[in-house]
Each structure stands twice: as C-alpha cells, then as structure tokens.
Amino acid sequence: MNRIVSSSLLTLFAGLVEPAPRETAMTWLSENEPYLTRVATDLWERAEPAHEEVLTSAYLQSELRRAGFEIEREVAGLPTAFVATYGSSRPIIGVVALLDALPGLGHGCGHNLIGAADLGAVLAVREALARHSLEGTIRFYGAPAEEIYHGGVYMVREGVFDDLDALLFWHPSAVTTVIGRSGLAMDSVRFVFHGRASDATDAAERGRNALHAVEALSLSVDSARIRWPPNAVVNRVLLEGGTIPSVVPERATAWYFLHARDRVQVDAIRAEVASLADGAAEKTGTSVDVQILSSTRDWLVNRTLAELLQKNLEADEGVLPLSFGDEPIPISDDTADASWVTPRGGFLVAAFPAGAPSHTREWAESAAGSFALKGMMRASRTLARTFLDLIEDEDLLLLVRREFERATAGKPYESPLPEGRGPFDHMPRPRH
Ligand SMILES: [Zn+2]
Fold first, then answer.
1. Which of 28, 39, 252, 349 is the least buried, fewest Cβ under 10 Å from its Cβ?
2. How far, in Å, from the CA of 368 to the mean position of ligand 1?
3. pTM exceeds 0.90 for this model
4. Distance CA 166, CA 239 (A)
C-alpha cells in the first residue's frame, strides 16, 4: 500500500467516524429532503397574508422548538413575529424568513420556500454544531408582513438583530444570483379623505365627495411623476371609495407605496404627494389625513459576505457572475434596515420559470412544484454552508465585520419610521 492510498483511506476512515461539519450538514439536508418538501407544501397550503400568519408562524415555531431552539414570540409588538435561538456562544449567525402570502393570490411570492429552506439550513447547522461540538449560536427570525413592507422595519427598530455577527437571507426568483447591489427605500402611506354624505342623485351639491378627492390625487400624481428620478416607482390602490353610488362617498382612502433610491428621494416624493393631497382636498372641499404606515431604507451590501455566498452557491451549478454596482435593483425590502445594524448578505435562487414575474397566479401555482422545491434545497445548502464558514472561520468573520464597520462608521442607525410610530397606529391590530 503506497502512501497516497493509505492517507486517502485514513481520510475516508476519519470521514466515517467524524465527518466534517459541512458534510454532516449536507448529509442531514439530503436525508431530510422529504421532510423539507412537506414543510414547504404545508406552508404553501396555509398561505396567510400580512400579520395573519398565525398558522405559518406557529408551524415554524413548533418545528424549531422540537429541535431545541428557544423561541421568543410576538417580538416588536407584532403578533406573528418570532426569534428562535439555538446555542449561547459567539459567533451569532442569523437567517431571516418571510412569513406572509399575498391576499387573494396565495404564495405568489414563494415565501413558503423561504420558510422551509431556512428551517432546513438551521436544523442542518444545529446538527453539525452538536455533532462536532462547535461553538456558535444560530438564529432564525420569522418576519411577518413583508408584502406590505411592515414587519421587518419594526423588528430592526426593536433591536432584535443588534447582537448578530452576520445575517443571511434568500428569496426565490427566476434567476440564481447573489445580491451585489442595493435596492430602493420606500414609504407605505395612506391618504384618507373625509367628505360629507348626501343623496348623490338630487342633492350631490350638498355633499363633499371624498372619492373625487382620491381621483384628483391620482391625476396630479400621474402628472408629477415625470419630474421624479427615473428609478422612482409609485404604486397605489383604492382601499375605500364609498359604499353605494346613490350616496356621495364621505370617506375614501388611497394607499400608496413610494419607492426611490434612498431616504432623501423618498422623503421628497412623499412631501410632494402630501401637498398634492392637500390640493385635492381643497379642490373637493374635503379634508385629508396622511398616515405613514412604514418606511424603509435602501440597504448596504457587504462584499465579503456576497463573495462567500457566491462561492457557496457555485457549489451547485448555474449561478450568474457576481457583480457589484451603484445602480439600485428595483426591489424594496423591509428587513433591509438590518443591513445598517449588522453585516447582511443575500441571494436569489431560481425556483420559478425564467420570464414569469412574481406576484402572479403562475408563481402561486408553482411555488410547491418540483422545480421550486429543487431551488429551495439549493438555497438551504447554500445557507448551511455559509453559516458553517462564518462559524468556523474567525478570520473571515473579522473581514466581514471590518467591512461593515467601515461602511457604517460615524452613521449610527436611525429608524426611518416616524418617531414613536406603533405598528398598528393606523391599521387594525390583528386579533388571534
Ligand atoms: Zn417576497
């Protein structure tokens, strides 16, 4: 027996007796694929909208509790938000899962895949830590109401991410890529117009039409748009606009999402839309309340973490090359603010057919299909590998930390939420 053979036999033997932590985690994931498939399907069937993620939240909490995680429930005053922790030593590495679905559209954003992949990753890493007596703490964050950009930013303000050494996230997509650019800051604002009811047929002039005010606001926003920066995105829906055509609507509400590249731009657009709302109220003899529901920032990209995620995503095939840049991607994210309190890295994994946009029935229907589940497993493996790299490689974690400290030096985090704003000041608090 020559030396090469004997040393490879030794490696093999060592591998059998005490496999490397990564191998333990990968083995756990491949053995538990049927379990994670069931989790993704169970979550897909639950599909609860913002702040109604009662079954989804309870489901994930119970799987984590069963695996020895300690759970803190209802964090930041959000009924379905939770933080699950395993371990007590440093470093502390977290992953954030989004819990909500789209009203009337089920899991048209694929968040069921995030919950299952994140669960798989932390359970696999837990197995590796326990089996190999590694130091480190794993966190799983359950963040509600992402679709209305409403849960994460309140969790960040509460400080639940402050003690992390790094935070990871992923989102299903039509492509596989590491996120190397920032996205858009945004505001969620409601304009509530108050008028006066009257018979719409023979005494309309005695009423004050709140729906007309909303319509006037829409027209003036559409003509103001061309003055705004090209990457600004302004979307709206009519939340209420009267009850019956024979009564002059006494109350009408338009809900706007205002997105632009940073807080300065979003603040300017919001101020302009608010003054257009005043104009619309004046013209129609109504009054208007401006209700800011939530506000988020653009995010910081940690290049060291992005490069690590790229390396780990490349362990499976088919990744776009990593590219950094200043031009923001047209996405907002309510946990983006976490990137200003801890190093944060994220990636997308192809789980949907190329060319099919998210927030569609096509996505909702295929979010528990075989291609989606394949993407979910890939995300889970990438997360688990990255967790272990950060836990095992102190020098790497130090580089991640240093980059974060350079980027945030002299810029202590300030929440973009209005001072003292409670999450349910302008929304009914869900009762569960
Ligand atoms: Zn989403």
1. 28
2. 15
3. yes
4. 39
